[in-house]
Design brief:
Structural class: mainly beta
Number of helices: 1
Strand content: 35-45%
Strand order of the largest sheet: 2-11-6-8
Largest sheet: 4 strands, antiparallel
């Protein structure tokens, strides 16, 4: 298990894995008062969480399936990428795809945070690329 430095100004607990086999941790809204998302409106919802990822890792902000299925609420830039050199507070860009206003409440689970290792690639100009069965 990798440990990462974290600053947390939110209320309650740090994000955690809900079950033993969960891939993501739930991010919660860190807001003073409820925020209303009108139909097709998008807003950045603060989480009170700042992290310092090691090089070669990213954190992906993903929608919660319950919010999407029950209320039409999703993460607009899904998945949102948090790079290893970003140190600011994580904000979740929520969008309301439904026809009904939705009220985001303080402490509500609004997204998931999934960590992923990645590789760096460099371009190599060539004169030909081998074909494949897909064309």
């Amino acid at each position: 298990m990798i440990k990462i430095p974290v600053l947390f100004s939110g209320k309650g607990d740090l994000p955690y894995y809900e079950t033993l086999l969960s891939a993501g941790m739930d991010l919660r809204a860190h807001i003073e008062a409820p925020i209303t998302l009108k139909t097709l409106e998008r807003k950045i919802i603060p989480t009170g969480l700042s992290i310092a990822l090691p090089e070669g890792y990213e954190a992906q902000v993903r929608p919660r399936s319950g919010l999407a299925a029950k209320h039409g609420i999703s993460v607009l830039n899904s998945p949102g990428t948090i790079d290893a050199d970003y140190r600011g507070e994580i904000g979740v860009i929520l969008i309301n795809h439904s026809t009904v206003d939705y009220e985001v409440k303080s402490g509500e689970r609004i997204a998931q945070l999934v960590f992923s290792k990645h590789e760096k690639f460099h371009w190599k100009n060539v004169n030909h690329i081998d074909s494949s069965s897909r064309g």
